Amino acid sequence: MDNFYIEDWFPLFMFASLGILVFTGLPVAFVISGIGIGFGFLGMAYDVFSFIEFFNIVSRIWGGISENMVMVAVPMFIYMGTMLEKSGVAEDLLECLNMLLRKVPGGLALSVTLMGTIMAATTGIIGASVVMMTLLALPVMMRRNYDPSLATGTIAASGTLGILIPPSIMLVLMSDLLSVSVGNLFLAAILPGLILAGLYTVYIFVRCQLNPSLAPPLPEGEAIHGKDLAMMVVRSFVPPVFLIVLVLGSIFAGFATPTEAAGVGAVGATFLALVKGRLKWPVLKDVCERSALTGAMLFFLFAGATVFSYVFRSLGGDDLVIDLVEGAGLGSWGILLLLMLIVFILGFFFDWVEITLIVLPIFAPVIAQLDFGHHLDIGGLEATEAQVLTWFAVLVAVNLQTSFLTPPFGFALFYLKGVAPKSITIQQIYKGIIPFVLLQVLGLILVMYFPELALWMPNTLLE
After folding, report:
1. Model pLDDT for residues 357-412, shown as the tens digit of each residue
2. Least enclosed by CB within 10 Å: which of 88, 296, 378, 413?
3. Contact at 8 Å (CB) between 25 and 297?
4. What is the Cα–Cα distance from 404 to 388, expressed in whole angstroms?
């Protein structure tokens, strides 16, 4: 081939290496950073990378991730969600919702969906949410003779809402990668997140209405009525909802930064555990240990992704991607659809952290240059670059919901199977998640076709 230089294709080889080495079972942070360092030395051999550039990576990690005040919110949001789980607040909430919806078709499944929506506004730790709801709800659903596929699909899908509905850890990370306001992203993700929850709710209600045998109702003898039910609502439903309103309301009203609001949430979750008499030393110790380990894992991934992305760009990765995209001749909408397809396919094999840290820095400059005409204009005003990137971030976030549910590496499926009764087969779980993956794709199409679903709230409340 004329004018073929192997060093021009190093960025493409980096992706190929990542796709292969991620299956070795090594920690992803080591794989990402190792590939970056390895290709840095390879670039030195071909005189397209210099050793001094490794020092730039250190300054980017220290001056970027370590000194970013928004990132301080991540461990505190993790602590808040873990404390609500370990202190039994979530268990009480599920029982309360079950009583309130006992006469509705599929009431227990709907309770799981609502609980997943409420708990999503406390934490973006999908593993914790899915495991918690599996342990709390699945045995009860099985005792009530719920269809195993409906039960497992509902739990897995509802547990993944925490990655989209704010205050989501993923949105905090996206705001840093795209250099857009985290408050804007939080507002932009609310309606799409609620739309997904609404689609789940409608699907469960209609399916159970048409086939009541899938979800038998709660026996009347187990129901709670009158004053006892009102007291249950006050004790179990109001406190976590009030905490969520306090955290998100303080951000949206401008009273607190996301970091400050995360601190309020962490203290509030601890206070709820204290009021319920469940703030014991073993609980506090376990919550702190799990929060520290999860936070350390995430920040190690951030550092590894910084190494990968810097070397990728230094080797000409940005130019290569732009050339490949422009050479495809797809147009703005064709490129957007192609990127959404790439993210969807990557979701079969990678976790959201890897996809976000690798895809966003590479494709964000491409998206910022695309022309969508007047499609993103809200209120007759031309969309800014920040609004385009906000819309793109929400599309990616909705798309990444599927990464937790699609085999062979759907992490929510593994979490669920790991703690589910032995009678639940992986085939039943796969069958159960198919309708919810289709609903997630429908949600993605709606946000893509109606961008005001993502842009109306930040444009209206923050103008």
Report:
1. 777 877 777 777 777 767 776 655 566 777 888 888 899 989 988 877 887 666 67
2. 296
3. no
4. 26
Contact 98, 287 (CB under 8 A): no
Give tens-digit pLDDT for 314-361.
887 767 766 766 666 677 788 888 888 888 887 776 667 777 877 787
Q: How far apart are CA 331 and CA 325, in angstroms?
A: 9
Write 362-367 long-range contacts (CB < 8 A, 24+).
362/309, 362/312, 362/317, 362/318, 362/321, 363/321, 363/339, 364/177, 364/178, 364/389, 364/392, 365/318, 365/322, 366/321, 366/322, 366/325, 366/335, 366/339, 367/335, 367/336, 367/339, 367/392
User: Strand, helix or coil at 378?
Assistant: strand
Grouping H, G, I as helix, E, B as strand and the rest as coil, residue 257 is coil
Q: Tell which residue, 248, 288, 250, 292, has the closest CA to residue 270.
A: 288
Q: Return the structure tokens found at 306.
A: 């910084």
Task: Tell me the three state secondary structure of residue 138.
Answer: helix
Q: Please enumerate in sequence order all residues whose Cβ is within 8 A of that of 146, keeping only pairs 6 or more positions apart, or say none.
A: 108, 109, 214, 215, 216
Residues 6+ apart with CB under 8 A from 116: 129, 133, 155, 157, 158, 159, 161, 162, 197
